[in-house]
């Protein structure tokens, strides 16, 4: 993880270093102040006159202490901007994660139990269609229908706290979850179908156990490994997916902050947000790697025997 984080941070910094546009012009602002003396002073202040590796060293050493630098646009510490935006984005991702887990697994179970029938075909077709719609297109459609036309939900914003936040984030969370739940549904269906023909399921049926208990206690339980892994990967990638959703719904989260920072060449903010997304992805996938042996003891036994 440490090695991956170092490599990722260097790639992020190098990409910003190679990006077109001179940040000095944005730092100074007024074109009348673009004198050689002023340009040299700003470059020295932000270490922009030093080689890239030296600049990376300054930035990386600051990151280790929680100092991501100063925002060019907002003239505030980047860490303060992240602290104000991260809770909103995490709330949105958590809400979407609940929706995609409950609905995705539910649809997958229904499709697996009714495999080969009309229900299975309908669910497969619906999830295929859902997976093909870009999130920003779906978000605009949701706003037009449920916010503007029916007025069931607010057009923009993330609410204040408590139920008001849950209410305001319903449409954005659903937009973020629709494409993802299609993937979870398919993985659930396929994993369960593979378990239906296994020996322990046949033994459970032969013992006279009702089918619903066979599905719940033997088929679904044995299929948890791939399902949980896919859910974790989808949730980890959702943080990057908030960029489009937060922009459509006017939510002041990390995703919209990244868009604003890119448009204004606010490189310290872009670097910090991208690094946050990488760290979040690594944390989620690592937690799942640790939890899988607990959810499925067979994984732990295989690791020990290996």
Automatic annotation (TrEMBL):
Key word Transmembrane present: yes
Main location: membrane
Domain spans labelled ABC transmembrane type-1: 86-288
Coiled coil: none
Transmembrane segments annotated in the record for this chain: 92-113, 125-146, 166-184, 222-249, 269-292
InterPro entries reported in the protein's UniProt record: BPD_transp_1_N, MetI-like, MetI-like_sf
Membrane topology (UniProt): Multi-pass membrane protein
Localization, UniProt: Cell membrane
Signal peptide: 1-18
A Pfam short name: BPD_transp_1
Database matches in PANTHER family: DIPEPTIDE TRANSPORT SYSTEM PERMEASE PROTEIN DPPB-RELATED, PEPTIDE ABC TRANSPORTER PERMEASE PROTEIN
Similarity annotation: Belongs to the binding-protein-dependent transport system permease family.
Record-given protein name: ABC transporter permease
